Automatic annotation (TrEMBL):
Biased composition (Pro residues): 53-64
Keyword list, A-Z: Coiled coil
Coiled-coil features, chain-numbered ranges: 81-111
Region (Disordered): 50-72
Retrotransposon gag domain mapped to chain residues: 169-255
Record-given protein name: Retrotransposon gag domain-containing protein
Keyword NADP annotated: no
Length: 288
């Protein structure tokens, strides 16, 4: 592209621009040359403007193989990240130690409370808590029932198997005591004691005998209402009678037919509520 072509394009775009008279240093009207910033492009060069060529983008230099391997490896955490990880591990360790200390304190507290409690359990207290197992003197008490009573007491008072065995053997009498004395070598723990005791005294509940006692049971004149009630309930529960059946035996054993009629008209209720009805009825009978 020539200079004239550039000038033509320039003056077409800027018609008020002043044209340069290059030979005289004045414009076409003979006036003094204006500042160069308003001149046409040809005023600044006389040679044709060469076409621009964009040079190619240079490729990055090849790194040494050893350096490439280092760059491909995962970056090591910074010093700050290392410090945060160490702090986190320290906090976790402290929390673990605190938890272990609390568990140890709870265990020591439970152990100390057991020791304090056991110091108050003597022969007299054991005698009051646990019935004597002597089949010769009390044929109604079965080995299975007696074992169950001791284990229930153990749950209440938090006895371990060693205490269960110690307190249980303290309450053996008669032929049961004789059996235990010659069986010491074969009894090592509470489980052995239970198994051997039940095997050597295997009597079971005689349901027919208990039913005959319930049928024949009458409230005695010197028997309180509570004594009468609980004696029948105990026999009924022993052979797993329903509550409604136990109520029928309670009503049957009363002397006055009027009381039987009133209690028979009572709707469904628990045994405890039935006892309360019996107590109110007895109080009304005394007033009259």
């Amino acid at each position: 592209m020539t200079n004239n072509t550039y000038d033509s394009m320039y003056y077409s775009a800027f018609p008020h621009a002043v044209k340069l008279n290059s030979e005289q240093g004045v414009d076409k009207d003979g006036q003094k040359l204006l500042p160069p910033q308003i001149l046409a492009p040809s005023a600044f060069w006389s040679e044709p403007i060469p076409s621009m060529q964009i040079p190619p983008i240079p490729q990055p230099p090849q790194l040494p193989p050893q350096l490439q391997e280092q760059l491909q490896q995962p970056m090591q955490p910074s010093l700050q990240e290392n410090q945060l990880q160490q702090l986190l591990l320290l906090l976790q360790q402290q929390q673990k130690e605190i938890k272990e200390q609390k568990e140890q304190q709870q265990h020591q507290k439970a152990a100390s409370s057991n020791v304090i409690f056991h110091t108050f359990i003597g022969a007299r207290e054991i005698e009051l808590l646990i019935r004597e197992f002597n089949p010769s003197a009390n044929s109604d008490l079965l080995a299975t029932e007696w074992i169950k009573e001791i284990e229930l007491l153990g749950k209440i008072y938090k006895w371990d198997p060693y205490l269960l065995m110690m307190y249980g053997t303290m309450r053996l009498g008669g032929v049961a005591r004789m059996w235990y004395e010659y069986s010491l070598e074969s009894i090592k723990n509470w489980e052995d004691f239970k198994r051997e005791l039940i095997n050597n005294f295997p009597r079971s509940i005689d349901s027919a005998d208990i039913l005959s006692k319930l049928i024949a049971k009458k409230r005695q004149s010197n028997e309180t209402l509570e004594e009468y009630f609980h004696s029948i309930v105990k026999m009924g529960k022993r052979i797993k009678l329903p509550d409604e059946t136990i109520k029928e035996y309670l009503i049957r054993g009363l002397e006055q037919s009027k009381d039987q009629i009133v209690l028979s008209s009572i709707g469904p209720c628990s045994l405890t509520e039935f006892l309360q009805h019996m107590q109110r009825l007895e109080m009304e009978s005394r007033r009259n």
